[in-house]
Structures are given as structure tokens and as C-alpha cells.
């Protein structure tokens, strides 16, 4: 189930597909991974260091396997993962940019 504090940070800030009026009960696997491993305060703090520029990274096979393979949205297919459209979901963007941030430190 979505939690408002996480939805505000992950979905509203980073996801092109987020709709304010949306009341979907499912969410991307990146959302779930971030929710299970970071508190809202930790996530909010880290989000200040993530650029909010257009997504330009390519699909990482390792990240795709780790995150996307468990995603609720896979049942209908994922345009980003299938190479049809960009950008990916907000959870994928946040995780990929956090990994890059820590790698560059």
C-alpha cells in the first residue's frame, strides 16, 4: 500500500507517470525497495542530492534484475524496460541516481 510520505518524495518528485488524483494500490518495485530500506526523513534528505533533470541513463541489467523483475507493473509490460519509451518510473530513477551518487563519492 502506498504511504503519503513516500509517495510525495518518490512519485511526485521523480515519476512522470504520477497523477495526484491517482489512488492506485500498486506501486513500482523501486518504491517498495526504497520504502523498506529508508525512512521518509532519510529519503527526503537523500533526494536533495539527486538532480531533477531529464533521465538519460540507460537500463542497467543488474538494476533491472534487482528492481524491475519484482515490479507490479510488469504484468502489463514496461515501456522503459522493453525499450519502447522513456523515462522509467520514479523508483528506478531514484535508485539509479542514488547508486551513481554513492559511486562517485
Polypeptide structure, described:
By secondary structure, the chain is mainly alpha-helical. It has one domain (4-103). Helix content is 46%, strand content 0%. The protein contains 5 helices and no strands. The protein has helices at 4-14, 29-37, 40-47, 61-66, 90-103. Helix 1 packs across helix 5 and helix 2 packs across helix 5 (90-103).
Helices and strands in order:
Layout lengths: L3 H11 L14 H9 L2 H8 L13 H6 L23 H14 L2
Q: What integer is the average pLDDT?
A: 82
Number of distinct helices: 5
User: Whole-Å distance between the termini?
Assistant: 33 Å
- Can you write the helix and strand succession as a string? HHHHH
Give the biggest sheet.
none
Oligomer: single chain
The stretches of 5 or more residues where confidence is low (pLDDT under 50) are none
The coarse overall form would be globular
Q: Total strand count, please?
A: 0
- How many discrete domains? 1
Percent range of helical residues: 40-55%
Task: Spell out the key features of this protein.
105 residues; mainly alpha; 0% strand; globular
Amino acid at each position: 500500500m502506498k504511504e503519503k510520505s513516500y509517495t510525495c518524495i518518490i512519485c511526485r518528485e521523480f515519476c512522470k507517470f504520477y497523477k495526484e488524483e491517482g489512488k492506485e494500490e500498486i506501486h513500482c518495485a523501486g518504491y517498495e525497495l526504497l520504502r523498506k530500506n529508508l525512512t521518509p526523513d532519510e529519503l527526503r534528505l537523500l533526494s536533495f542530492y539527486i538532480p531533477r533533470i531529464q533521465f538519460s541513463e540507460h537500463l542497467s541489467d543488474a538494476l533491472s534484475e534487482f528492481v524491475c523483475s519484482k515490479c507490479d507493473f510488469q504484468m502489463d509490460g514496461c515501456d522503459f524496460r522493453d525499450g519502447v519509451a522513456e523515462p522509467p518510473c520514479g523508483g528506478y530513477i531514484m535508485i539509479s541516481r542514488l547508486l551513481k551518487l554513492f559511486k562517485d563519492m
